[in-house]
Amino acid sequence: MVETLNVSPDVLAGAAVKARVQDLSFYYGTHRVLKNITLSVAEKKVTALIGPSGCGKTTLLRCFNRMHDLYPGNRYDGGGIRLLPENTNILGADVDPIEVRMRISMVFQKANPFPKTVFENVAYGLRVRGDLKKSDINERVEQALRGAALWDEVKDRLHSLGANLSGGQQQRLCIARALVTDPEIILFDEPTSALDPIATGKVEELVAELKTRVTILIVTHNMQQAARVSDFTGFMYIGELAEFDRTEKIFTNPSNKLTEDYITGRFG
Amino acid sequence: MDRHFDHDLKALEKKILGMGALCESMIQKTVKALVERDSALTEEVFTMETEANRLHMDIDDTVVKLLALHQPMAVDLRFLTAALKVNTDLERIADMAVNAGQTGYYHLFKEPPVPQLDWVTRMAEVAQKMLRESLDAYARRDVQLAQKVLLEDEEEDRLKAKALTDLISLIRTDPPRSEAFVELILLSKNMERIGDHATNIAEDVVYMVLGKDIRHGHSAIDPQTS
Fold first, then answer.
1. Which of B22, B25, B27 is nearest to B156 (CA)?
2. A252/B211 touch (CB, cutoff 8 Å), yes or no
3. Which of A57, A110, A145, A149 is the most exposed place for a label (fewest CB within 10 A)?
């Protein structure tokens, strides 16, 4: 078991809470990969999850939009994830995962545009919902592409394949696709690990811009990236949340020796 | 796990402690030269300043390289930022030792001996002790020893106040020698400043070890946890 859970009592002081993870455990079959995670996600802030490979950070992220439901044998246990202000447990059996994914979008490690045009990649989520007029869809796609800082680069080739864009542009296309449903939370799973420093910089700028409108949860292996983009950081270790605090505290003076050893490269 | 980076940090620490030892030796020699009116020893201190300046630049350069190449976090980051500040304080201490040497070399040695120089020796002893302890605290990550240095600064301030009172009194009773007494007032200020720089180093040690900024009257003890 990890030493202690270090959460300063005033860590979220002044920030509204958008989601609350309560005593959440998660199993891949019989293997318990998340152990009693309790965590508050601040609204319109960036929360980073860091930790060594296999610590459960991506598993926790995927709980937020019910990705695990797609595979048999997976099981959530405990108090669930409550979305505020209405206090809905998004892991509840009565909650439609598609609805959850409309409200909580995800951007993956590797850009994964659909084999469709730039426009259709972004419009897809709206078409799934199926309740919008063509003119509304056009407007929302443009808004999303602008929101992902991609519009100026693709406005003249909206109908060419998304896969023809550069790696960095494809990742921003995926961010536009995540934005188009006007989500409350966006989940980023190592969004820049396959990008060069320039494209990485653009995505990080975008994250900083997006947090004025949306709550962001990001998993990253890049310590400097977590330090640059996030307001709060959680350090996970063997399925537990070993420490959660303001990012500047974590990276200058963490409370837990395990966190310190990890971020200073002594293990991991 | 012993990282390659740890070897770089250790090498840097060794340089800083070397710089500290050099400064300590400069204070010792400069005061001995003052008391014994030894120009040759003072010239030795002037020569030592060249090495102090070289080390000052070398240490800064090393820290900047380590920051750029390793992008350190947490305790490593605190160690390196403290190294930059300690280095600056040490260079200032070397300057103070030189200034004190110049007081003797260019002024006091040309005049008849000044009586009652015990306080100079005493102030230098306290300053040297503070410097030695602050560097020991740095090398051993010893917060308690660092806090002891902070308390010792009060003794240095008290000695300086006493020296000032005595020297003003001497100026009044022996006006023709006022210039020498004013030089001694400046000397007492130099010794007191060495104590202040040692205090800064001690404060940096507390920051480096605990991550707490205790400068400007802030306590190392967190009021929330005490």
1. B27
2. yes
3. A110
ipTM: 0.74
All structural domains of chain A, each given as residue ranges with its CATH number in brackets, are 6-263 (3.40.50.300)
Question: Do the Cβ atoms of A42 and A15 come closer than 8 Å?
Answer: yes
d(CA A180, CA A41): 22
Please state the pTM of the whole predicted model.
0.83
Domains of chain B listed by start with CATH number: 4-210 (1.20.58.220)
In whole angstroms, what is the distance from residue A85 CA to residue A92 CA?
Answer: 16
Q: Is the pLDDT of residue B156 over 60?
A: yes
Among A88, A97, A98, A92, residue whose Cα is nearest residue A78 = A92
Q: Write down the pLDDT at residue B192.
A: 95
Tokens of B183: 């030089």
Residue A264 to residue B1, Cβ atoms within 8 A: no
CB < 8 Å to B223, chain A = none
Of B1, B73, B211, the CB nearest to A263: B73
CB within 8 Å: B1 and A263: no
User: What's the mean per-residue pLDDT of chain B?
Assistant: 92
Could you report the per-residue pLDDT of B73-113, keeping only the tens digit for each? 999 999 999 999 999 999 999 999 999 999 989 888 888 88
**pLDDT confidence of residue A15:** 86
Give chain A positions within 8 Å (CB) of B7: none
User: Do B73 and A267 make contact, defined as CB atoms within 8 angstroms?
Assistant: no
A217 to chain B, any CB pair closer than 8 A? The answer is no
Q: Does A267 touch chain B (CB under 8 A)?
A: yes
Q: What is the 3-state secondary structure (H, E, C) of A112-159?
A: CCCCCEHHHHHHHHHHHHCCCCHHHHHHHHHHHHHHCCCHHHHCCCCC
Model confidence pLDDT, tens digit, residues A37-92 = 999 999 999 999 999 999 999 999 999 999 998 888 999 998 899 999 999 999 99
Chain A contact for B211 (CB, 8 A cutoff) = yes
Residues A63 and A97: their CA atoms lie apart, in Å, by 11
